[in-house]
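Can't paste images in this forum, so I'm doing it all in text. The chain is below; anyone willing to post the predicted structure tokens underneath?
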Amino acid sequence: MALTSTPVPTLSMRFGRAIELVRLWLGGKPPAVQVAALPWRRMPSGQVEVLLATSRDTGRWVLPKGWPQKRRTLSQSAAQEAWEEVGMVGTMSEKAMGSYGYNKRLDNGFDRRVRVSVFPLRVTSQADSFPEKGQREMRWFSPEEAARRVHEPELSALLRMISTADLSS
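Text version of the structure:
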């Protein structure tokens, strides 16, 4: 019940990773860690859809994500984010399908490099009430359309790798 795809890095992903390695080698601070849920469902036609939500601050299309939580595994933290932000409940993969990087703007105006581990969540239901209900727009997309909507190139590449062959029933 999980996405089981091994990402094949694109040239831009490999270039970004090489730059990151050089930055670390020169004494740079390692990226902070966040977790994200990738809510997905299989339609009766067999097609897969993924859920994106808008961020509260910029209105960009994103996955539900946040910081790891004490006394929870990374996948449990991702499941908690999915419930809090979009009310999605289901079967969470214990294994990340991949990761992506981005620069998070901090309250002090500085950017912090962040690496987000993405955990697939096969959605079985949506809660009637959840903490951030009404604060975000949510929409189901094909993986290809979701890849076009997000701003992070590595996340876009992860979304493009999803196909019906990647999912077990």
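The helical segments are 11-25, 74-86, 143-149, 153-160. The CA atoms of residues 91 and 128 lie 18 Å apart.
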